[in-house]
Design goal:
This protein is an alpha/beta fold. The protein has 31 helices and 18 strands. Strand 7, helix 16 and strand 8 form a beta-alpha-beta unit. Helix 11 runs antiparallel to helix 12. The longest helix has about 35 residues. The relative contact order is 0.12.
Length: about 850
């Protein structure tokens, strides 16, 4: 076991407290350096101003974007920290958020110095911003980008119902079932670059590809879209020049530092860093350290072009294993221990940046969910086990580093060797929420549903972007966070004839007073009518948003790293990839399904409650109706307990939701000119909290404004038959239709993994999870007492990690409502 011996395990609140790092002092120092309050970096915004003053309106927009990218690489502040073996900083600070002026100008204007929303004092996602930086923001950045922000165009293009009932920034009612604002202040993000290609041919090889397509476009026999394609290829080449400039700057900096140090060991390390950064990622990698450096340098280049999150690493152990094999097993240039230390340094680098969100978006995506998914395990394309020595190294690195990033995740299939699952169990036992797990059986079904023309060999090569957003890597641009859809609010509207139960506004269609409904079919008909109405509005809003975004956020560098853009001569944001999808995220499944079960049981089947009694109770938020409140909670079966009746209602609402998506996919007027498809996922982030704020009381016992059940998880405290019963309930849901993934949170007591035998049982549990056909599961293994102590004395728990929803965060960086939501989740103590 990886923790100290504990005589009385009943006292353990988290196994993190009994774990001691055994990594090198170099890695320990880097880990300590990375845990700090985030700051901001203004360099990108200032670069935008500089370049726009020179060329705005004089060159095509995509060229302007490429010029900004190149200038940023030429001028950005570089850092090589003490002892680092993998180098490259996303911004000028150790942990900070880059400011993109054209995306955040309005946000900074509205929130800086605000008595509630200011970044130093807000309840979540706090940033330190110095007085000097505040002065620059107020006097230079905000005035420059006044009326020059992308969101201005998005909101201006929205009209009618889209303006009033989809975007929080323009809506008349603040309790809508729709939320389409997450990408109004963001680039595309959610990309999965072809790192294997970079490692094998380098950016110089990709540059040769661009030149080939550029020359082909110039040929006389090509007649159409030549100017647009020419601009795209030119922008790609400018961006690749910028990439080379950054690498050369790092090489020179390392050489300079080598000449200045008196430490002979560090001198050689810096000279090697200088050699490597001169070589990669511009040229093919050969060694383990070169490969790690190539991947990380490519990642920071992507992050310097796109202000969004979830740009992920894909099947990390698969494309890196040949380099480990070369350096450690064949050439024996380094030992396994040295390779592990380099990987640990790589892991630390991924945790040295953050994203800054507006206050409302930060409430949905609380505590910096940058979710750089690093995927290990699974199967090869020909159906063999894919685990290798790098798989194990990643688990060992995560065990020692234990920072907020990377978002390490593991694919599980029936052939996964026990030694890898057991190591993963030992790591997740520490209570940091990592790794999370994906079941190949269900994942491949999902991918077949989304990519029906692909072979089983191709489908086995799936990867995951960000939280749980499954896709075929490199060929898909996945706009995962395009819209949130709250079916708890849909039921709320169906029960109130389309009126918002909180503010009284008539926001939905009139679908009838439920007191007149004589059967469940009447209610479900009203429910579907509300859902179809708002789904149509949400999809039209996403079309507005994506159409405007396609004119503002070209990403020629990232486009070079995907499949489709170079062949088409089209940027990823304009439909360049072979597949483009827009993510719709579902909130409220358990509460809505359980509520329908309550109505069916108590009103229609058993006739123990009348419609008048039920509606009066929920309209009074259950105040004065304690007996009825206990009845709906305790005397009707609930989802999460392997009860076919209860689970069936959740399956019904999920199928109804996906029926609405399928209907919208058939209406091609719902899409941007470049096409795409809507794909569904269970809701991510902290949306259970924010979704609950929009919903009045519901028949399952839900109280107005409280957190709803998150994602695919049962309602807090209602899953009482153990963890395996939850898996069985989830296996009955139509998860294969969720083409972008589902999410299940489980909270276990530390005592459930106290012994070696307990860890073995957890391995069996993971095999059961995959065999049942569930897609995703992740864990908090920490008790409420420890979490409450962290709330009371946050300074003592700065590095305490928890699983928020689809990502991990430092517990002390979550707002109090979100913290209590985690504490109130069912704490399972039996399998």
């Amino acid at each position: 076991m990886n923790t100290k011996f504990v005589e009385n395990t009943a006292e353990v609140g988290s196994w993190q407290e009994y774990f001691e790092r055994t990594c090198s002092d170099r890695v320990k120092a880097a880990v300590a350096r990375a845990v700090r309050t985030p700051e901001v970096c203004l360099e990108h915004a200032l670069t935008e101003i500089e370049v726009m003053d020179e060329v705005h309106g004089k060159v095509p927009h995509i060229i302007e974007r490429a010029m900004i990218f190149k200038r940023f690489q030429e001028t950005r502040t570089l850092q090589i920290h003490e002892g680092e073996l993998i180098v490259g900083n996303v911004n000028s600070k150790i942990r900070a958020s880059l400011i993109f002026g054209f995306l955040l100008g309005n946000q900074l204007d509205a929130e800086l110095d605000h008595p509630v929303y200011d970044y130093e004092i807000r309840s979540n996602d706090r940033h330190h911003i110095s007085q000097e930086e505040r002065k620059i923001i107020r006097e230079k950045i905000v005035p420059y980008f006044k009326n020059k922000c992308m969101e201005d165009d998005i909101y201006a293009a929205a009209d009618g119902d889209v303006r009033d009932k989809a975007f929080g920034g323009t809506a008349k009612c603040s309790h809508l079932p729709n939320f389409a604002d997450l990408l109004t202040r963001a680039d595309a993000g959610h990309s999965l670059a072809n790192y294997q290609k970079v490692l094998e041919i380098g950016l110089s090889g990709i540059r040769r590809e661009v030149e080939f397509y550029q020359k082909n476009n110039d040929a006389g026999y090509n007649h159409f879209y030549k100017a647009r394609k020419a601009d795209f290829y030119k922008a790609c080449l400018i961006s690749l020049e910028g990439a080379e400039i950054l690498c050369n700057r790092y090489s020179k900096l390392a050489a300079k530092m080598a000449g200045e140090t008196a430490d002979p060991v560090r001198k050689q390390e810096l000279l090697e860093i200088s050699r490597i950064t001169k070589k990669v990622p511009m040229h093919p990698a050969e060694t383990w350290q070169e490969a790690l450096q190539s991947v990380w340098m490519t990642q920071i280049l992507i992050l310097g072009e796109q202000m969004n999150y979830a740009d992920s690493f894909g099947r990390f152990d698969q494309y890196l294993y040949p380099f480990y094999k070369y350096s450690v097993e064949e050439k024996k240039e380094i030992t396994r221990e040295q390779a592990l230390e380099m990987l640990q340094c790589f892991f630390v680098k991924t945790a040295e940046w953050t994203q800054i969100y507006d206050y409302n978006s930060a409430s949905v995506q609380v505590a910096f969910p940058i979710t750089q998914n690093l995927l290990i395990g699974g199967q090869t394309k020909d159906g063999r086990d894919a685990c290798n020595e790098v798989t194990m190294l990643c688990l060992e690195a995560e065990e020692q580093v234990g920072l907020i990033q990377p978002e390490i995740a593991m694919r599980v299939w029936e052939g996964t060797p026990t030694k890898y699952l057991r190591k993963a169990a030992e790591v997740v036992r520490l209570g940091r929420g990592k790794p999370k797990f994906y079941g190949d059986r269900k994942a491949i079904q999902m991918m077949h549903h989304a990519y029906p023309d692909m072979s089983i060999e191709d489908l086995r090569d799936y990867a995951v972007i960000g939280c749980v957003e499954i896709s075929m890597p490199h060929i898909t641009q996945q706009h995962s966070a395009a819209g949130i859809f709250n079916i708890g609010k849909i039921l709320d509207l169906a029960l109130h004839n389309g009126k918002c139960s909180i503010c009284g506004e008539q926001i939905g269609p009139e679908t009838g007073d439920p007191r007149t409904f004589t059967c469940m079919e009447d209610l479900i008909k009203a429910y579907r009518a509300q859902q179809d109405y708002f789904m149509d509005i949400l999809c039209r809003a996403i079309t507005v948003e994506m159409t405007v975004q396609s004119k503002w956020t070209e990403a020629p560098f990232t486009s070079c790293l995907l499949e489709g853009p170079l062949q088409k001569g089209t940027d990823l944001i304009q439909g360049g990839c072979w597949n483009t999808s827009f993510g719709l995220m579902l909130a409220g499944s358990a509460n809505t399904g359980d509520s329908l079960g309550v109505i069916d049981t108590l009103v229609f089947r058993e006739k123990r409650v009348t419609w008048d009694e039920l509606m009066d109770a929920i309209d009074h938020d259950w105040a004065g109706y304690d007996r009825l409140h206990q009845m709906v909670i305790n005397e009707v079966p609930k989802y999460g307990n392997d009860d076919d009746y209860a689970d069936g209602w959740v399956a019904l609402v999920q199928n109804a939701w996906y029926d609405a998506i399928d209907r919208c996919n058939k209406n091609r007027d719902n899409f941007p000119q470049y096409g795409g498809y809507f794909r569904g996922a269970s809701c991510l982030g902290n949306s259970a909290v924010t979704a609950g704020m929009a919903v009045g009381a519901l028949p399952d016992g839900f109280r107005k404004g409280t957190p709803m059940a998150d994602a695919m998880s049962p309602t807090q405290g209602r899953d009482i038959n153990g963890t395996t019963a939850v898996l069985k309930s989830m296996s009955k849901l139509p998860s294969e239709r969720f083409e972008m993934g589902t999410l299940l949170n489980q909270r276990l007591t530390p005592q459930l993994l106290a012994t070696e035998e307990d860890v073995d049982r957890f391995v069996d549990y993971l095999r059961t999870f995959e065999a049942l056909g569930d897609y995703h599961v992740q864990f908090n293994i920490i008790d409420g007492k420890t979490l409450r102590a962290a709330m009371a004395e946050p300074q003592k728990y700065q590095d305490l990690l928890v699983r928020v929803a689809s990502y991990v965060s430092y517990f002390v960086e979550i707002d109090p409502v979100g913290q209590m939501d985690i504490i109130h989740r069912s704490e399972q103590n039996i399998w």
